[in-house]
Amino acid sequence: MPLAETGTLVAAAAAGHRAVAAFNIITLEHAEAVVTGAECAGSPVILQISENAVKYRHGRVRPLARAAAQAAAEAGVPVALHLDHVTSGRLLREAADAGFSSVMYDAAHLPYAENLAATRSAADWAHAHGLWIEAELGEVGGKDGAPPLDAHAPGARTDPEDARAFVDGTGVDALAVAIGSSHAMTSRTASLDHGLLARLAGTLAVPLVLHGSSGLPDGELAAAVTGGIAKVNIGTALNLAMTSAIRDYLAANADAVDSRKYLSLARRAMAGTVTALIVVLRDAGEPAPVG
Ligand code: G3H
Ligand code: ZN
């Protein structure tokens, strides 16, 4: 199946009152696991590579992006490739010829006016190069090892009227909203501000994106979908599955040498996590059209 486009997958999800899952990948094993997990669920999926993952790969985006794009193109379900949490103009410009159909430009840490100006310029560039673009207003905490934001701190929630003006002023195609989730949570104990989500969904015409979804229990993920979230970003849950599979294997096999022994278990564990989370999101939304 040819590489899908993020904009198409998100638009179809939003129109059908469903959500598409977007998983952060760091290694080729992550990408293979996401594809396998989505194939088992029989659902489309988005592979995403963050700026931090690019930094981990010595600042080079193309080796992993091209491998992921190829895995996506050979998948039995529609799979798109997205560049996530970009702050660098240089990396943004590399997105156009590395297989990505979309980018999330992240200036959420800046004051409102600066976020708007920087995001408008990124959106103009992205659209001129055929890329769908997501941005963030109100800061989803926990990025780069930061502690989760105080839920009541200024900027820790997205104001609906600010968001309307931000979307109109920037021309972005989707908006990541701060409604109570936080990045890099290793326990599924977060809860969302469902009243705020309802106000955002009623105010904004663009699809809404949830970040930091690993910290949400199944019921909150399902409620996010029924509340109007159309793209659900998940990263830490995969690393939890991967690391725990490797830790268990090495604990039982202290003299292990062949990395394929534990990476295959890690890949299988991640694929199981992907399928389970896609099923939670799918069961919450309206049934997809058959055929
Ligand atoms: O953009 C990526 C995500 O927001 C993933 O967050 O690692 O907390 O699931 P997470
Ligand atoms: Zn995020």
From TrEMBL:
Record-listed Zn(2+) 1 binding positions: 85, 183, 211
User: Which GO molecular function, any one, fits this protein according to its record?
Assistant: aldehyde-lyase activity
Q: Which cofactors, by name?
A: Zn(2+)
Q: Which InterPro entries match?
A: Aldolase_TIM, Class_II_FBP_aldolase, FBA_II
One record GO biological process: carbohydrate metabolic process
Active-site residues from the entry: 84
As to how many cofactors bind and how, the note says: Binds 2 Zn(2+) ions per subunit. One is catalytic and the other provides a structural contribution.
Keyword check for Metal-binding: yes
NCBIfam families to which the protein is assigned, alphabetical? cbbA
Q: What is this protein called?
A: Class II fructose-bisphosphate aldolase family protein
Q: Which organism is it from?
A: Streptomyces pacificus
